[in-house]
Amino acid sequence: MSITILLADDHIVVRQGLRSLLEAQPDFEVIGEAKDGLEAVKQVEALHPGVLVLDLVMPGMSGMEVVRRVHDQTHVIILSMHSNEAYVVEALRSGAYGYVLKDATAGELAQAIRTVVNGQRFLSAPFSEHGIEAYLRRSRTGPLDPYETLTAREREVLVLAANGLSNPEIANRLTISPRTAEIHRANMMHKLDLHTQTDLVRYALRRGLVTLEE
After folding, report:
1. DSSP label at 61?
2. In terms of C-beta density within 10 A (0-12 exposed, 13-18 middle, 19 or more buried), how is residue 212 classed?
3. Strand order in the sheet with 98-101
């Protein structure tokens, strides 16, 4: 039975290369591609892939926020150029099953896909499982992250607001009233102790919720 895979990366050459490498495996089937974070979320919901191979740096909505939204629907593998352990920890805390560096071999990525589809974690060779576990334990016992207090709708509003959408535009995107969008925005800003649009954008960038487009 084939393992179905969705590829999400904003560079078409990268997606084409990954598709070619993965489809050479007899048990893999690439069933879709996404060029940005919002499209990745929609594709997961529509196609129900077994595995999502996802870049961290995506236009509009970052890969990290995509993980938070879809980790209960598919097994997510982050494929990234970032080798900082902090990124690995945040990805795993957000619900990713695997973290593979972009300079990994095709064989390592294939191994990662087969590993996570069985419900096991996979980390690229440079990362220490022991070290990551220690980071995760410390993060679990630390003070409550204010982001965790946001509702799902408030997180949506946060991403859209950080991308510069006004309350009426957010309302139109989420099919809610402008007043409701305003309330969600105010509640979100209060919970995160943010006071200006600049504060909001800086917070979203720091958390990897949005990214600066190249």
Report:
1. S
2. exposed
3. 28-34, 3-8, 51-54, 75-80, 98-101, 122-123
Confidence at residue 149, expressed as pLDDT on a 0 to 100 scale: 84
Give CA–CA dist 172/23, Å, rounded: 39
The answer to whether residues 19 and 33 touch, using CB atoms and an 8 Å cutoff, is yes
Q: What type of residue is 16?
A: Q
Report pLDDT for 211: 67
Question: What is the tens place of the pLDDT at every residue in 45-89?
Answer: 999 999 999 998 777 777 888 998 999 999 999 998 888 777 787
What separation in angstroms does the CA of 23 have from each of 6, 29, 44? Answer: 12, 6, 19
Report CA torsion sign: 192, 198, 204, 210.
positive
The single residue listed with the structure tokens 């095709």 is 106
pLDDT in tens, 7-54: 999 999 999 999 999 999 999 999 999 999 889 999 999 999 999 999
Q: Which domains does the chain have, with CATH numbers?
A: 3-141 (3.40.50.2300), 146-207 (1.10.10.10)
Q: Is 24 helix (H, G, I), strand (E, B) or coil?
A: coil
At 20, which helix (H) or strand (E)? helix 12-23
> What is the DSSP code string of 94-158?
HT-SEEEETTS-HHHHHHHHHHHTTT--EE-TTS-HHHHHHHHHHHHHSPPPGGGGS-HHHHHHH
Query: What is the pLDDT, as a whole number, of residue 128?
Result: 65
pTM of the model: 0.69
